[in-house]
Write a structure and sequence with these properties.
Number of domains: 1
CATH superfamily: Metalloproteases ("zincins"), catalytic domain
Structural class: alpha/beta
Strand order of the largest sheet: 1-2-4-3
Distance between the termini: 26 Å
CATH topology: Collagenase (Catalytic Domain)
Order of helices and strands: EHEHEEHHHH
Shape: globular
Radius of gyration: 16 Å
Number of helices: 6
CATH architecture: 3-Layer(aba) Sandwich
Number of strands: 4
CATH class: Alpha Beta
Length: 198
């Protein structure tokens, strides 16, 4: 699936300076479900952090409206999902399940899909990378949302495009480039692999 483009066919926006008075409001609703785990360990409500990340992404990409479901989960439950859907029965930080594309319904937001986060992996990675837990959580939400919108990181070019978007979106939230911090450690803050792009 190609990366998301706004409904009007215009290129994604990277700010609101060019917004017109008759432009539709930018809105990406994220329904947060607490499946399990001790998500109260975050310095702010996980729901607020997730919704702020979704709003920053919607602004950056010019998404007029849409819906996503985010499951705040555990390593055990994410490992089960990872095994069932990807044949890898191990925990991972974030899983994205894009919705089957459907014909748009006038006046209804598009459902983009589901995301699951694993708390223990999130905590371990943030500690290993020396990142604030809330920043890493918001990064993973952005990463998962970009996957729902068709972005990927299978090739160096795809990874560079996706990382660049992530950095711009996180900057809207006041979060420093997590790849720069990870560069010192040599690991990607998202998938634990070596970063291949400059």
């Amino acid at each position: 699936m190609p990366p998301y483009a706004p409904e009007n066919g215009a290129p994604p926006v990277s700010g609101t300076d060019d917004a017109q008075a008759d432009d539709p409001p930018i809105s990406l609703y994220i329904d947060v479900v607490r499946e399990d785990g001790g998500w109260d360990c975050l310095p702010a409500a996980a729901e607020t952090l997730a919704r702020d990340a979704a709003a920053a992404l919607a602004e950056e990409l010019g998404i007029g409206s849409g819906e996503v479901c985010l499951a705040l989960s555990t390593d055990a439950l994410v490992a089960e999902l990872n095994g069932s859907y990807r044949g890898k029965p191990v925990p991972t930080n974030v899983l994205s399940f894009p919705a089957v594309p459907m014909l748009p319904v006038e006046g209804e937001p598009r459902f983009f899909g589901d995301i699951a986060l694993a708390l223990e992996t999130l905590q371990r990675e943030a500690a290993d990378l020396g990142l604030p837990l809330s920043h890493h959580m918001q990064h993973l939400v952005v990463h998962g949302l970009l996957h729902l919108l068709g972005y990927d990181h299978q090739t160096d070019d795809e990874a560079q495009e996706m990382e660049s978007l992530e950095v711009r979106i996180l900057a809207r939230l006041g979060i420093a480039d997590p790849y720069a911090a990870a560069g010192d450690a040599g690991d990607s803050p998202v998938d634990g692999s070596r970063r291949t792009t400059p």
